[in-house]
TrEMBL record:
This is Nitroreductase domain-containing protein. It comes from the Bacteria. GO terms for molecular function: oxidoreductase activity.
């Protein structure tokens, strides 16, 4: 295999994915990379119609484009090249030639989710312009930033609805706690999941969190309002940011969400370049898409009402009518995160 192609793929997998699920594998033939989706890797309830996986693949493709430029190639991307193979999300051909390296490339491996509270300071005019400029020329996706404190508080409260429902629904509770990596030695062996340190819980809360992984304890605590208290705390943290933002897709099909993923990655890498902290808070959006399509199996009516009500408020604040909210995040000035997720060795098959 061409060494440059291997290095490009090793850069690519530092893209973000839901619960660090890394839902991809690769086939290489000469200077062409086929990117394949692994459909069952991401969250089975929230990943409605593979929306989260498509966003992850969009971020992965953006990394490939940036890394290709660094290694002297232009990456020509063809989405879903085989109509009878929905899992083949992209075929990317590398064309050698003179290229200009993107200023975002050095930040591919520095990009990280930061769940800490951020400083109560606004984005500078330069920071705002750089973030908005980052997706210029990418058709099919737009960026909306909200810096008003009241709007940030509403967005935080709406987004935290996801955590409340996750603590009250047994299956979501199980899936969430299964994704936590509890010990450092587990992280090197795990192919997916989030290290407990990355949740930025203070020591007393971490002890409580370990107890909460047992459903009978969580259910008992919810009877005295624990899920509401936890969601309220998360909402306050989400609001402690310089801005809340959304990537808006022109539609909600697979290509639209891949484009949105590319946009999200550009914004995130630009934020990293500017020294800003960043956290996706987009679980509610994926859940609400499922509910709007009428897929409400296993959910209680109250949770459906809560999720759809919160989602409608998000659409109003971000000015969405016929488009789709693909990705929601908060951004601001924060200290370094305690931990970051690792990456598995890329699964690459070389075709003869």
């Amino acid at each position: 295999m061409n060494e440059a192609i291997r290095l490009i793929i090793e850069d690519a997998v530092w893209a973000p994915s839901g619960s660090n699920s890394q839902p991809w594998r690769f086939e290489v033939s000469g200077d062409t990379i086929d990117v394949h989706m692994i459909p069952d890797r991401d969250h089975p309830i929230l990943n409605y119609k593979q929306g989260g996986t498509y966003i992850a693949h969009g971020a992965l493709i953006e990394n490939i484009v940036l890394s290709a430029m660094h290694h002297g190639y232009t990456a020509e991307v063809l989405l879903f090249p085989e109509h009878n193979n929905a899992n083949l999300t992209a075929r990317i051909s590398m064309v050698a030639g003179n290229t200009v390296e993107s200023s975002l490339y050095p930040f591919i491996r520095q990009r990280v989710t930061n769940r800490k509270a951020y400083a109560d300071t606004q984005l500078t005019e330069t920071e705002t312009k750089e973030l908005e400029k980052s997706i210029a020329g990418l058709k099919g996706a737009s960026l909306v930033l909200k810096t008003n404190k009241k709007e940030r508080e509403i967005i935080g409260k709406c987004s935290a609805t996801m955590e409340r429902i996750a603590l009250e629904m047994r299956e979501l509770h199980r899936l969430f706690f299964e994704e936590i990596i509890w010990r450092n030695d587990e992280q090197s062996r795990s192919e997916k999941g989030l290290p407990i340190q990355s949740l930025e819980l203070p020591p007393p809360a971490r002890v409580m969190f370990r107890a909460l992984k047992h459903w009978p304890i969580a259910r008992a605590l919810n009877t005295i309002g624990f899920s509401k208290i936890a969601a309220s705390g998360n909402a306050a943290t989400y609001a402690k940011s310089a801005a809340a933002g959304a990537i808006i897709a022109v539609g909600d099909n697979a290509k639209d969400f891949i484009t949105a993923g590319r946009a999200a990655q550009r914004v995130w890498l630009t934020g990293t370049k500017l020294g800003l902290s960043f956290q996706p808070i987009t679980g509610l959006v994926f859940m609400a898409r499922r509910f709007e399509a009428g897929d409400t199996k296993e959910f209680e009516d109250r949770h459906i009402r809560q999720a759809l009500g919160a989602y409608r408020r998000l659409k109003d604040i971000f000015g969405v009518r016929n488009e789709a909210i693909a990705f929601v995040f908060r951004i601001g000035h924060g200290t370094e995160p305690t931990s970051r997720s690792s990456r598995s060795v890329p699964h690459i098959t070389e075709k003869i």
